[in-house]
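User: My collaborator sent over this chain with a note saying "see what the structure looks like." That's all I know about it. Can you take a look?
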Amino acid sequence: MGSPEARPREEAVNPLLNTQRHVHTAAVAGHRTALEDALRSYLHRRLRDAEAVDREFGRELAGETVRFTLGGGKRMRSLLAWWGWIAGGGTTDGEGAHSALQACGALELIQTCALVHDDVMDGSPTRRGRPSVHARHTAEHAENGHGGEPRRYGEALAVLVGDLALVWADDMFGEALAGVPRPGRARPVWRELRTEIMAGQFLDVRAQARRDRSEGAALRVNLLKTASYSVERPLHLGAAMAGADGETVDALRGYGRDVGTAFQLRDDLLGVYGDSARTGKPVGEDIREGKCTLLLGAGVRLAGEQEDAAARDLLARVGADADPAEVADTLDRLGARDLVRARCEELAARGAGRLDGLDLDPVVLEGLRGLAARTGTDPA
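Assistant: Without extra context I'll predict from the sequence alone. Here is the result:
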């Protein structure tokens, strides 16, 4: 523990701030624990069902789905859905709350589907600092000397893991919905969330295949693949289940679009300038794959505006033989990195401002403001 002098001055002057922060941290930890318990209980029940169908199916495929889902992640999407539930007037105890926790937890299974399938499509060797699902099964198949192509086997297993996670997500959500106050308002949000994430993934794959370098395309992918699915729709889903008024829903959705987009832009910066130990994925992977990001799109535009032929030629080779470190330096020199940083700050601040005037639970309000503040800071 550092001395009081080493802490921010306001905390040393006003110890109440420390107390309030500790209360908030404990409350958020309690929310995460409740969500984790609901998710774990449901998954263990489904695992027993799977083992009853077939022992190997249960142990290998269903077991892989459960292990991946419970084995990492910050539960951000389910936590935001829970905060949307509270913001919309939902209770934190009783049958309604229990059902809401299960419904919110279903988002973690959609996340499993998205991550496992995304790694297959991108050919990513790692996830969360460990071998990705398809990479691990490919290696095991090769080591065991089984017939067939190891890569195809590994990718097939990963596709099935993602598919099972999506099926279970629908089951988990549908089962819980009967116990919330406004199931009819929540169902359309769930449908939209699932469709939008597929649309975002499609646009991401297509932009990469067409070597699209436009800033507009990057922002569209960010909106559908990340902002909507990661922040806007989880908040919307929770609020809809509770029967929130229109003003609250509009404010939460506006917050979600802004902060969710900033979240992806920050992730793009981490992917180029971050630390693999923090991200769990190799730095420079987006450059090697030729991902359509605002960072790259801005760099291409700025290289043209500055008539920098060397930069234009280098950025044209992104996704082919361009060196990621050289691309990172070039984007920094052109001003693309600063542009994306500024955009993150602007979006995060605008998102936080949308909460002004809402009568929100203090823990939820501080949590949302804290997320916006972290999203708006330079990650690297």
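A starting point for your reply to your collaborator: Residues 1-19 have pLDDT under 50 and may be disordered.
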